[in-house]
Amino acid sequence: MNMKEISTNILIGRNSFAKRITLPSIIILVVTVVGPLGFLLYASFFDWSLTVPVPPRFAWFYNFGLVFKDARFWNAFKNTSVLMIAGIIAQSILGLIIAFLLNRKFRFKKLAITILALPIMVTPVVLGFNWRIIFHEHYGPLNYIIRLLGGAGSSWIADPKLALFSIFLVDTWQWTPFVTLILLAGLQSIPHQVYEATDVDGATGWQTFWRITLPLLRPMFVLVILFRIIWIFKIFDPVYILTGGGPGITTETLSLYTYISWVKYWKVGYTSALALVQLIIMTIIATIFVRKVMQRRRA
Fold first, then answer.
1. Which of 200-214, 228-242, 262-276, 284-298 has the least mean pLDDT?
2. Max CA-CA distance within the chain?
3. 269 or 53: which carries more pLDDT confidence?
4. What percent of the chain stands above pLDDT 90?
5. At what angle do helices 268-298 and 214-233 cross, to 10 degrees?
6. Which of these ranges, 4-13, 104-113, 183-192, has the smallest mean pLDDT?
7. Per-residue pLDDT for 141 more than 50?
8. Could you tell me the residue range of the domain that residue 94 belongs to?
9. How confident is the model over 21-74, as pLDDT tens digits?
10. d(Cα 299, Cα 209) in Å, to the nearest integer?
């Protein structure tokens, strides 16, 4: 056997070993992702409700038509969009400010970063119950502080005008640290020589920020916005625990409405179509955003 045949056998053995190693991961991926997605696609084409003793009936795109005619779906889509747009803007601005403050040398910097990261580590259920106590109309610490300052306090999660804003506050409190850490990593990756060159050229602080820092942080902002788009469309625990979608349906989001359609009404076909529409909308938004960013980067 010559050296070429030996090398070929070694490569074949390595490829076979690699396939055996990755096989369990592929099986898990198929079972947990591809399988449920395939069932959603299958069920979305059937008029299928577990509350009616009638077998599923193939209905083509009937369920998708119901979704787009459903006023409750559009209400949930509006609430989700408001949380997404307002959250991304507020968290990006706050995260950038805090990242600039942390991008300096000072005592207990590591401790400050550790404390900042705590909201991300809190379990969503625990987070929801804690903020429910904070927002309590009579016994909550937030209204207590407002009354100490001479205010009247508010029904934060019971008032239709404030309920969605309260969820926005919770989401911002939890995810601003995540944005901060991503942007801080981006700031620390910028070479000091870049800033030294701008000082030599006589650029002002604002010019350096606008023309140097922000463009170099663009990949980090892309990462942050993509993650936040995905997570906002999946937001469930805080909304379910704080308001349950109420008062009425004023804070109902797409993920919560999908849950209610299945658990409360047992509409298998309609809920499957609703979940697929949500996935498609999220994918379209993310794809358009990435393409716009890449076009600007090439230009």
1. 284-298
2. 92
3. 269
4. 28
5. 180
6. 4-13
7. yes
8. 72-298
9. 777 877 887 777 777 888 888 888 988 888 888 888 888 889 899 899 999 999
10. 20
- CATH code at 212? 1.10.3720.10
From the list 174, 16, 153, 17, the residue with the least C-alpha distance to 91 is: 174
Domain count, the chain: 1
Whole-model pTM: value is 0.83
Residue 143 identity:
N
Residue 98 to residue 108: CA distance in whole angstroms: 15
- Asked, for residue 61, whether it belongs to a domain, the answer is no
